[in-house]
Amino acid sequence: MDCLFCKIAAHSIPSAILYEDDQVCAFKDIDPQAPTHFLVVPKAHIQSVDEITSQNSGVIAHIYEVIAMLCKEQGLTGGYRVVTNCGADGGQTVGHLHFHVLGGRSLAWPPG
Ligand code: AMP
Ligand code: ZN
């Protein structure tokens, strides 16, 4: 499948990987929007939140465990934001489900 994040998760495209296991991969965003900005993706291809079902949702809980672990490891004691963009109106540009984790500065709300 011609999918950028499948290729990153399979190591066929290089990236700055922070953590991986059999289910998920976490790597630094190539265009960081905060001092800490990494992405966490399931290794299995899921297009977006819209494609989450009872069959594949187990990995989502695991992704949040990994996020909590990595944010502690990165020292984000002041807090952080987890964002997933879905579809065109949500601003999704890569069609493989991913969770942005942003931290290291105060983040405005609501987003634009
Ligand atoms: P979204 O707009 O929510 O689909 O987010 C896609 C994110 O992927 C953006 O923040 C991009 O900077 C990031 N991105 C695109 N290509 C790469 C890459 N090769 N390695 C790491 N991050 C990437
Ligand atoms: Zn994919």
3D architecture notes:
- The chain has 112 residues and is of the alpha+beta class.
- The protein is built from 3 helices and 5 strands.
- It is globular.
- A 5-stranded antiparallel sheet has the order 1-2-3-5-4.
- Bound molecules: adenosine monophosphate and zinc ion (ZN).
- Adenosine monophosphate (AMP) binds next to loops.
- The site of adenosine monophosphate has 11 residues, from loops.
Q: Please, how many helices? A: 3
Quote the distance from N terminus to C terminus. 32 Å
Give the distinct bound molecules.
Answer: adenosine monophosphate, zinc ion
Question: Percent of residues in beta strands?
Answer: 15-25%
Task: Compose a concise summary of this entry.
The chain has helices spanning 4-9, 58-73, 87-90, and strands spanning 17-20, 24-28, 36-42, 80-83, 99-103. It is α+β, with helices and mostly antiparallel strands and 112 residues long.
